[in-house]
Structure formats: structure tokens, C-alpha cells
Amino acid sequence: MPHQNMVEVRELMKVYPGGTRAVSGINFDVPRTEFFGFLGPNGAGKTTTMKILATLVKKTSGTVVVAGYDVDTDSKAVRSSIGFAMQEIGIDDLARGRDFLQLQGVLYGLTRREARSRTEELLEMVGLSHVADQRVGTYSGGMRRRIDIAGALMHSPDLLFLDEPTVGLDPQSRVAMWEHLDDLNAKGVTILMTTQHMEEADRLCRNISIIDHGEIVANGSPESLKSEVGGDVVQIAINGTGDELSGRAEGLVRERHYVDAVNKVVGGIAITVKNGSAAVPDLVGLLNEHQVPVASLSISSPTLDDVFLKYTGRAIRTEAASSDHTRTTLGPGVGLTRR
Amino acid sequence: MHIARETYFIYMRNLKARLGQPGVIISTLVPSVFMFLFFGAPLSGMTNIPGFPSESYEAYITGMIIVLAVVMNGADSAFTMLTDMLTGYFDKLLLAPVNRFSMLLGALLVSGTRTMVQVFVIVALATAFGVRFEGGILGVLVVIVFMSIFGVATACIGLIIALKTKNVEATQSSFLMFMPLAFLTTGLMPQEFLTGWFKWAVTVNPVNYVLVSVRTIIIDGWVWDSILPGFWVLAAATMVLVSAATWIYRRATA
Questions:
Q1: Residue A242: inside a domain, yes or no?
Q2: Could you tell me the pTM of the whole model?
Q3: What is the ipTM metric for this complex?
Q4: Facing residue for A56 by CB, picked from B9, B84, B94
């Protein structure tokens, strides 16, 4: 019977020579067929953890079991069971794409015939058949990522480690990569991915661990973590001047049973509700009924950035904080301030 | 997977990486031509000195040119490995379930192959300069094989330095320190003509024993008393260096 958890980590610690503590006694499991994310900023300990799991870095203490094998005593079995696409893309620039993949295949024990056949299959899958005879050094960033992931899949591993798989990709390539990863996971490949992109973790992972300074500070599905932060915020801009209309709107909305909180903001009101989309029709109807003119409306959902902020006291990346909010704007935007 | 199979695939990969760079032939050919031109005819008068062991100075310095070419390129496998480390491909190889010794052997055998090509080029060049090989075709083959082993031994030194420093510049500059080993020999004139500290240095320099073996096959043929000491020195040095490189490689990749 296949092992239920593909990864089991207990009290994992890594202290580098010189005393830098990269990982401080973390625990987590990754069940079979899971898409699991490790979310955290640079230097949080994500890559070190993943390299320990892949047998590339020796741990200081703790136990790590990957695909049912202990990384200390069965490192070769661990390496046979996993595919690993690293952050710093480890490919041979002088090799042709096709040769690179075939060598990966034979080094993982495939016969030459099997390696050739699997190479063509994967080249097709990652859309690189047309450049398979070009040197990898001539590939674009997106193509290099794709050939690297194809290399990690040559031996059809059940467990795939991806360290920042979309770093350096343009938005279009990133979305294409997400679709590839979704497909792989749907085919039963367990994926453990590190990322510092909130949007990426939210889009792909069924469960995540937020790691900071070598410690896991939160665990759970993106939805459950976000729900811990609070509900949606519906922001309504009101057409008119003065506080009178806003005050009236605030009073009307406060009576609704599903409203958790109402605050006046510049040019309108901000309403906290459990489910913003469901509340909007009733709120708009209510305000129209009482002649409060609605200029525009937006719904802000809590993001993983809010989760990170809650548990660590700071944003994961300042520049990411604004771009990762999921905001739905209805009507002309009037620059409402998000809560 | 069987070690021989793994070694073969890694060897072929490294060989292709080297073949993609024609520098091996050029870096062998250019200094060798210069050596024959600058030292061959201009110093040919040395052959008239009583006791000089050869009638052709080009024949006499062919051994030196071969040894120098091997030593000068001794760090090539180290550079391939360092490049792989810089690009992250080294980690990719470490991730594969292959024996670490296969990876090391795959790198060292490429150095052996590179040396074979170099010696072949220099032999062809020497022939063009009129050198006759007293050991015959068999002698040429023995020189090629013998120097390939020498190439593996020098590659071990390069790999050890690279694994310890993990730095291209440091590896390159430290290898320059080995150049005197090629010059502190009887490469340009026989030991009987040397005096003082240089004569003593030549006596204790293991590279000189290797050189004497090669030169003897070229200018005298099968004179075993002169050939065998170099064979034993090279065998011992290769065993020690391969063992040391394996030990350091395993420690570095554990």
C-alpha cells in the first residue's frame, strides 16, 4: 500500500556553520496528491527545507521521511522518488534540449528507448518540441523553466518539488506555468512548492504553511487562513457631498443582520460582511430604495498577504502587497481606500 | 543503475561539453608550434655538445612539449565542474540517484580523452618537424596511453583545488603554481648539464620521471631502465591522487 503521507517532517532544524539558524524545529505533513505551498519571504528557510527534503543539504536534527524513505538512511531511494526543479535553474546550457532530457532519463534508470519516448512526450507537454534541437543556453527564461520542470518529470515521479517555479517569468508565462502545474497535480503528482507570491499560493495550493525566520507561523488551506483574518469588505462610494448621505447610508446598512461592521471612509462607507458578493444586491437595493445614490462599489477579499501580516506583523513584500489584493470593482472607480 | 553505465553517460555528457569548445586543440597546437619554432632549430646546436643524448633537438624536446600541454590543461575538468556548480547543474546531477564515484570518474575520463587528443596532435606536429619515434607505432601508442593516465592524475589535482576553493579564479591561479613542475625537469637539457639547486629539484620532481619515460621511448626506444621509474612514479601518484580526489569529492557531495 502506498505511503499515505508523501512528506513527513518532525522537529526539523538546520543550523549552518557559523551559527545561522535557517530552520527552527518545524513540523508538517504533505499528503499524497496534495498541492502544498511553502509561503514566505526570501531567507525564511523555504529553500533550505526543500533542499534537506531532496537530500542536497544535511539537516542538523529532526526526522524527515520523503515518499516513505528516511533522508538519512535511504537518500538514494528518496532521490529516485522525487523530481526537483530548483530556483536557480540547473540545466546544462551547452546541451540541446532533447539531449538534456534524455540524459536526465537515463540517469534516473530509464532505458535509452524509454528516455527517448518520454523526452518526446514531455517536450510536447511543455511546448518545446520546436526548439528541442537548440542549445538550452539559447532558451528564454520561460522556456528554461519549462525544460527544467520537464527534466524533473522524466522519471515520472509521484512527488515534485518546485522552488519558486515562476521566478523571472512574465505574467503570461506564469499563468501558462500554473496551468501546467494544475494539470500535473490533477494527474496525481503530489507537489510541494515554495513561493513568495501570495497570488500563486492562493491560485495553486490546497494547503499552505507560512514560514518566517525558519519557523512555521501558520498552516491551513488558503480559504481557512483568510477566514481567520476576517470577512470581505464592501466599499460603497456615494454620489453627493457632505457627511449627511454617508451617515444615512451607515445607519441603513447597520440594521442588516449579515453586516459585521460599518465605517465611514472618504467619499462613502466600508462594510465588513462574511460574503461580499452575496451581500451586494441587497445593499445596493437598500440604498436605492432610500434615495442614497451609489457612485461605485468594490469588494475586497482578505488575501494571504493579510494572513502573513497577521502572523508576522509585516507585509511579505511591500511591492506585492498592493498587487496581490483581489478587488472587484463595479462601476467607475473613485479611489476608495481599502480597509 | 550499474556504475559503468552511469559513468558512460556522465562521461559522454562531459565530453560533448568539451567538444563544443575547440579551445582544446588550439591551446595545444599554438604553444607546441611555438616551442618547436623557438626552441627546436635555434637551440639545435646543443646536440653538438658531447654527451647530448639525441641527434635531433626537436625529438629531445617533444617529451617536454607533451608534458607541458598536459599540465597546462590539467584544470579543464575542474572548470567544467565549477561551471556546473555555478549554473546549478551540479546540484541536478547530485539529485539523480547515481553513484558519486561515477560522477567523478566521468569527469576524470574526459581529461584522459582530452590528453589523448593532445598527444596525438603533438605527435603529428613533431612528425611534421622531422621527429622520428624510435619506439615505433607501439611506442607512440604507449606514450598516448601513458600520458592519458598523467592527464587523469593532473585532473585530480585540479578537481581537488576546485572542490576546496569552489572558485574559478583560485583554481586557475593555483594551477599556475604547478607550471614550475613542468619546467624543473630535464625537458630542455639533460641532467648531466645541470648544476646546483636546479639539478637537485629535478631529482626530486616526480614529473621529471614521467618526462624521462616519454622521452626515452621517443629518442631511444625501449630502454626499460629509463622507462620504468617513470611508470612506477606515475602509477603511485595516480593511485594517491585518485584516492584523494574521491575522498574529497565524497565529502563535498555527501
A1: yes
A2: 0.77
A3: 0.81
A4: B94
